[in-house]
Write a structure and sequence with these properties.
about 120 residues; mainly alpha; globular
């Protein structure tokens, strides 16, 4: 059942993004940024945790999960370090994902021929 919930949750998030791409003039970059901000907002009002519990990886892997992790990291760091945590908490909480993205991007650039589209 966990696989089905993850598939449904991730599928709904992807379908919403596709609808925005098809029906609005928003660029994909703005939609993706909106997903991160939505994850932060939903975490801040306490709605994202039940969604992530139900949807599992379908909720935590997409960009809304990244935004949720940023918000959790900031909240934890502010509790421990005060206002300095606003600047450090999000990066500390998401450092593994950011490092993996940089590493895999670098490896892809070594394997494939990067360049501008013509």
């Amino acid at each position: 059942m966990q696989y089905l919930n993850a598939f449904l949750c991730g599928g709904v998030l992807c379908a919403i993004g596709q609808i925005f791409i098809d029906r609005t003039k928003l660029t994909p970059a703005r939609i993706l940024t909106g997903y991160v901000v939505l994850g932060v907002i939903l975490e801040a009002i306490g709605v994202y945790a039940p969604i992530a519990e139900w949807g599992g990886a379908g909720a935590t892997v997409p960009l809304t999960g990244f935004g949720s992790n940023l918000a959790k990291g900031v909240a934890k760091a502010v509790g421990e370090k005060g206002w300095l945590g606003v600047m450090t908490g999000g990066l500390t909480a998401t450092a593994g994902g950011i490092a993996a993205a940089v590493l895999f991007g670098f490896l892809a650039a070594l394997v494939f021929k990067p360049g501008e589209k013509r």
